Structure prediction request, 540 residues.
Amino acid sequence: MITNLHIKNIGIIDDVTINLNDNLNILTGETGAGKTLIIDSLSTLAGARFSKEMIRRGEDSSFVELCLFLPNHPDNMDGNIIVSREIWSNGRNLCKINGRMVTVNELKEFMENIIDIHGQHDNQTLMDTSTHIVLLDAFSGGLLENNKTEYLKLYEKYQEIESKLKENFGDDKEKQRRLDLLKYQTKEIEDAKLKIGEDKELESQKEKIANTQKIAENLQIANNQIDEVAIDAISTAIRSMEKIESFDESYTKSLGELKSVYYELQECGRTIGEFSEDVSFEDEEIEQIEERLDLIFSLKRKYGNTIEEILAYSEETNKEIEKIENLEEYILKLKQEKSEIEEAMTALATKLHETRKEKAKVLEAKVNEELRDLEMQNASFEVKINWEENKFRRDGKDTVEFLICTNVGEEAKPLTKIASGGEMSRIMLAIKTVLADVDQVPVLVFDEIDTGISGMAANAVAEKLHRIAKNHQVICVTHLASIAARGNYNYFIGKEVNNNKTTTQVKMLNEEETIQEIARIASGVITEVTLNHAREMRGK
Prediction:
């Protein structure tokens, strides 16, 4: 439900905050005081178009904010949601849901399941024909539930098979082209005889080749220093220690360590010498390394960033080749499975269709009865169900659309073709009254619902609004005392002039003020007689 509505700089509304309640909220007041502007503000928050001419004179922007309490909504944790929209004179829009910026379309999609507005600027879900089958099925109660659940399981499997069949690589020519390409790719990778890690080893060799001269020079220096300097120096040290080793055991130990170093150094020198012999590369060897690296780079560019990825791609390609080569058998199996599912789905869809036709007649009768109560004796509501022979939908093979005929002799038309705002509101009220228990939209707004009615029809409208308000929050602008008398909460919309500026004022009425407002609406004057009549209407 809406708990709070804040409107700023729309028409004559300067800055108004309205605290709304559940059940039936009635808005009455002076002509031109801004009642319709309040409905327009709600439409703006529901994603409707906004004319910059609606921005209050002298201001650069308009702002509307709505506080909602929806305890079961997935977009909130504590049940509270704040929705706002700010519009500037240059056309810029800023829409937010709980502080998160959204587009106008996202705002509209969010709000369409929260609020239905019936009046001059309709924005209700009943205008969306895709909701009609949902509402009819909900009206049908549990009669469809088991069949729909079973059908939906089959439908999802059906969609999965359809998707697989679309992946059959096209016609025979296309399949052969795909097969040739895959075989070429596989052969190219297999012929390369790749080994994991060989690219790193080749890169190391390539770097070594690029630094051959530097390596050779430094190996020669190291070798010369060992042979000509280090070994000679250690040999001299050994001979010197041999001359004195008999004088102390520690000298003998040091001599042994020197000899170990001497032998290790000789071994190191031989190793470095071998390095020097390996430094030179033949031109043919250099060319082979370059060619191998170029091949690996080319394969990486086509099939993966690493040798591991290239080999994995080859494995997947081989699987796809096997799948294509056995495609006829694979497709035949899918088509057989699809045919069996289609047969089962058709049987279930037929049951759904028959149940819908049966419940559509009940829905038509109930809505037409409500229309007669609303003094629309010539109106006729119709539920049109089309069976689509060659198409499966998520809800079966049916499309459902609500149609209305408002005059005898005319054909039934879609709800969007109804021109009169008041007429449309009463039609919507009739439908909503019947669907009140199954309609999941929590907030209903009615404007102009009392246009062209009085007497018993007005009483019927009041009764139906009161009935709907047991399951929904209803906000209704009215000029009729009989409707205002049924309100759970009544608000007076007035206007005042200050400093040559007209501004809208909103006041929630207490019980005595509500009685006075009903008396004013009923007769235009407040007397003891009209007050007593108002109390009688109010049931006080």
About this structure: The CA atoms of residues 116 and 124 lie 4 Å apart. The first strand starts at residue 2 and ends at 10. The mean pLDDT is 85. The first helix runs from residue 35 to 45.
